[in-house]
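User: I'm writing a tutorial on reading structure tokens. Could you give me a worked example: one chain, its sequence, then its tokens, then a sentence or two explaining what the tokens reveal?
Assistant: Sure. Here is the example chain.
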Amino acid sequence: MTAPAQWLSAFPLQQAQGAVTALIEGWTELAAVQRPHFNASTKEPGLTKRLKIFVENEVARRHGLLGMWSTEDIIGDVDPLTGALVEERRTDIVYGWNDASQGIQLVFEFKRLGRQKKHRTHYLEDSGLRRFVTGIYGRRQAVAAMVGVLLDPEDEVVPPIRKALEDSTLAGSLKVRPLATGENYCRPSSMFSAADFDTDHDRPATASAGMGPIRVSHIFLPFGYPTSTVKPKKPRGSA
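And here are its predicted structure tokens:
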């Protein structure tokens, strides 16, 4: 994969790697056991809100991360003529950091993932990865992360996602930029050691703002117990 000169010279990789490390560390601690309000049946917003708060309060300081964490941050556009919101979306988790010369807003988009085809579609297409391609998510950013929350064993979930990305029709619709070898993903990830693979995508000029393609790292997080045999009850009043 090649990257635009701006990405090579300006992207604060160390800060991004620290944020990914903190996020995964927080997940590993929270997901180690089945908790009443954080478990395999908890919906995505419930997982991401709790994870963001836990990482911000308990984990980030261990790694000396000075940036800001947010969840359900509203993004989109406003029509200057009518004042209407256009393409309004809420991001799952964002880590933002800057100094006098550079900065990032690293978006983590979460999807609960089982072995079913409908889960792969949810992850890869309009509700997931495609949002980075269209510029709804990751606008003016060079790097982003898709995070799959594993509801089934990794070897039953992740290889079919990689296989799906090899399909020329899907890869074309996702504007995938292939490697020099012709492959549609880079494995292992060139960005984050915890990621399984990376994909590069072209996107509209209005979304890239001179940054060119966006690189999306794909991270997959398991629960610390067999989710296929656990049927946790959803606590009353939990999101």
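What the tokens reveal: The first helix runs from residue 5 to 10. Residues 5-226 form one domain.
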